[in-house]
Specification:
By secondary structure, this protein is of the alpha/beta class. The protein is built from 23 helices and 22 strands. Among the domains are: 102 residues, OB fold (Dihydrolipoamide Acetyltransferase, E2P), CATH 2.40.50; 153 residues, P-loop containing nucleotide triphosphate hydrolases (Rossmann fold, 3-Layer(aba) Sandwich); 159 residues, Rossmann fold. The structure holds adenosine-5'-diphosphate and magnesium ion.
């Protein structure tokens, strides 16, 4: 069924071909519906009019309006420096309005002697209030328009959009889109839902979100639009769950065999924590039910997830299956391979590795071994999902630090099988458990909430550049004590060259400023060849280097217990979960470890909060909760996990948890009555559900 709102945005008055292209490129707006769902990020109260005398320098970045009469105009400059000014006053004072562009048009439309509503950002010049490029509207006109939006939406924009349309222009096309669409907006929720949950109609919500007349109206509109988004997610989550539970196609791992027992009794280098034992039990219980396991294992950095992975893989192999383990980076894959090979040495077990840079012999061994069934465990990177990799009998998949693997990639792994293998996804960037359960309703969640004994909490400090000498002194002390140090630089894609320059400069200054005899520095970053990276990591691991200067390639998983100091340069440029991950690289041996966050003096409020949080707590769960509050849930790490793309524009599952519960309840009710969503009244709900599956081509049964 064609939906009118799916028409191209180019048909909206004031848009046209060129702007339509721009809107798509800059804001992802393609259809009229997209434009109407491009919501304001804040609102200005347009019922509030300030006397000029009350405007003060604290308002210099906010939008305000005054009501004033134009007393005169003036021209200054020539050519490109030309400027047009108008002077306006109310009973309390006067302001200067200036234009540098579009002068011809402005001078024609301004009438001296008439009263206008002047709307813009005030600035101050020698104590005088000025507005550059304000919006002007005759008082009479404004009065007639006021009815339509007492709160004016402010839309986030980009430089290109701003120069093509301006704030006013953008608002105009939104208004035009509304005018065109207003009689073509179909309700998507069945009437009983609206009644039962006191939701306003969609048409009204789409109007009021752009043109609210009051705060109450705005709230009702927000509630309705958030509900739609959360309901879509919940319909999908609940469908996935019942799908999975209705199938009984999981492999059975009924026995605890020789490999597991031998390892447990004779080779375990330490005793397991209670939390590790519990999770292994949970996995074991899952794999004897006949259901296919789909488990998310959350455990803070350093909590010992690798051991859980290994022991559960042994269970699979004891039952005649192969297992594989995917890691997000080459370094991490190699590390897992080394650790697991070492721990299982002498056992009747074949472990192989496959990565993008595997040499011919390594690759052949892995591919042949896995196809013939000779190899029991295959460890690797994305290379594992290549078509060439054919397992003889894959029963169990572990995915480490999952946020880098998309659901589609995982699906490709197990389309290799007739029956889907059991899946364990491990992550150190947890989301709050209750949230996980609600969002990923179809997943089982395990938590390792305990660190191995004897770990001393890492001390975290925030230094500014002024304290750099102190930092060098501290590092020298640590190195003199035989400890090793990481120095990490941010790497942000858009400015890669600049970032590498930071790293190179940093490396040079360490080499130059570091008057310690015989200390050794090595470098590791993403632009190096794999074998150089590996060599550099090897040097650091075997303590042939004291300092590793790196980009965040070492973010996940790297395990060098003798390293006790993590220095993070330009720490304000990292997100909380990344900082926490990086910090987790130290504190792995017995010694006291330190994390030093370096930043400039000037910090945004949010960056300061992040760095403070890091200094105050080392609890990954608390940090992730805070992270969600600071960033919103739009980009929760691991959202891909559930096969759901959270196309959330307005709802925030953390902040709107109440409404999320409501949506969940609604979804369950709807599906209980019409699981296929095939009733006429649910036709739109079906689309709403499909929207959050990210347009995946494979069928739902392959996701879980
Ligand atoms: P993560 O959960 O971050 O992946 P790892 O699996 O890398 O953590 O484990 C971190 C370190 O703790 C490793 O050096 C590992 O050998 C060690 N470790 C794991 N479990 C235990 C335990 N129960 N007792 C002592 N040390 C442990
Ligand atoms: Mg790990």
């Amino acid at each position: 069924m064609a939906n009118w709102l799916d028409n191209s945005v180019k048909y909206v008055a004031g848009v046209g071909e060129a702007r339509a292209k721009l809107l798509e490129k800059e804001l992802g707006i393609i259809t009229i519906g997209d434009l109407l769902r491009y919501y304001p990020f804040r609102y200005v109260d347009r019922t509030k009019i300030y006397p000029i005398a009350e405007i003060n320098s604290n308002m210099d970045s906010s939008l305000v309006q005054v009501r004033a009469r134009i007393t005169g105009v003036a021209y200054a400059g020539t050519g490109r420096k030309q400027r047009f000014s108008a002077f306006a006053s109310d009973a309390s004072g006067s302001v200067e309005l200036t234009w540098f562009r579009g002068i011809k048009w402005v001078e024609k439309s301004i009438e001296v002697g008439r009263e206008y509503i002047i709307f813009g950002r005030p600035s101050f010049y020698r104590g005088e209030v000025q507005f550059a490029h304000p919006e002007l509207e005759l008082v009479e006109q404004f009065a007639s328009r006021k009815e339509r939006c007492a709160l004016q939406g402010i839309y986030s924009s980009t430089e290109k959009i701003a120069s093509s349309l301006g704030t006013k222009g953008f608002f105009k096309i939104i208004s035009n889109a509304w005018e065109a669409a207003r009689n073509n907006i179909e309700e998507i929720l069945p009437q009983w839902l609206l009644d039962h949950y006191s939701l306003i109609p969609l048409r009204q919500a789409l109007h009021d979100i752009h043109f609210p007349q009051s705060a109450e109206q705005l709230k009702a509109a927000e509630r309705r639009l958030k509900f739609d988004e959360l309901l879509g997610v919940q319909l999908l989550v609940q469908t996935l769950r019942s799908d999975r539970l209705s199938r009984r196609n999981g492999f059975l791992f009924p026995k605890v065999g020789n490999l597991f027992n031998d390892f447990f009794n004779n080779r375990l280098p330490f005793s397991l924590t209670e939390a590790q034992k519990r999770v292994i039990k949970e996995i074991r219980q899952d794999t004897i039910t006949g259901y296919q396991m789909n488990r998310l294992l959350q455990g803070d950095v350093g909590s010992g997830k690798t051991m859980v992975a290994l022991m559960s893989m042994l269970l699979a192999i004891d039952n005649g299956f192969q297992a594989c383990m995917m890691a997000p980076t080459e370094i991490l894959a190699r590390q897992h391979f080394a650790t697991i090979s070492r721990m299982t040495e002498g056992m009747n077990l074949k472990v192989a590795i496959l990565t993008g840079s595997s040499k011919a012999a390594e690759r052949r061994y892995a591919l042949e071994g896995i196809a013939s069934g000779k190899v029991d465990i295959l460890i690797g990177t994305h290379a594992l999902i290549e078509d060439k990799v054919q397992f003889a009998n894959l029963g169990y998949v572990v995915i480490d630090e999952q946020h880098r693997f998309g659901v589609e990639q995982r699906a490709r792994l197990w389309t290799k099988n007739q029956q889907p293998p059991h899946i364990l996804v491990m992550t150190a960037t947890p989301i709050p458990r209750t949230l996980a359960m609600t969002l990923y309703g179809d997943l089982d969640v395990s938590v390792i909430d305990q660190l191995p004994p004897g770990r001393q909490p890492i001390r975290t400090y925030h230094y500014t550049d002024a304290a750099r000498l102190k930092l060098w002194g501290f590092l020298r002390e640590q190195i003199a004590q035989g400890r090793q140090v990481y120095v990490v630089y941010p790497l942000i894609k858009e400015s890669e060259t600049m970032d590498y320059k930071d790293l190179e400069d940093g490396f040079e200054s360490i080499v130059r400023d570091f008057p310690l005899p015989n200390y050794r520095v090595t470098v590791c970053h993403g632009k190096m060849k794999p074998q150089d990276k590996e060599e550099s990591m090897r040097q650091f691991k075997e303590h042939e280097a004291d300092i590793l200067v790196a980009t965040s390639v070492i973010e996940v998983g790297v395990d060098v217990p003798n390293a006790t100091v993590m220095v993070i340069e330009s720490a304000e440029r990292f997100g909380l979960s990344q900082l926490h991950q990086l910090r987790g690289r130290v504190g792995r041996g017995g010694g006291q470890s330190f994390c030093i966050l370096m930043s400039g003096e000037k910090l945004s409020r949010e960056a300061r909060q992040r760095l403070q949080a890091m200094c105050q707590t080392s609890d990954g769960f608390r940090l992730s909760e805070l992270d969600l509050k600071l960033r919103g849930a739009g980009d929760i790490n691991g959202t891909q996990q559930s096969g759901i793309t959270f196309d959330l524009k307005i709802a925030n599952p953390t902040l709107d948890s109440q409404l999320l519960q409501t949506a969940r309840e609604a979804a369950i009710r709807i599906l209980a009555d019409d699981a296929q969503l095939s009733k006429a009244e649910n036709i739109h709900l079906r689309k709403l559900r499909a929207k959050h599956s990210g347009g995946q081509r494979f069928d739902f049964s392959m996701i879980s």
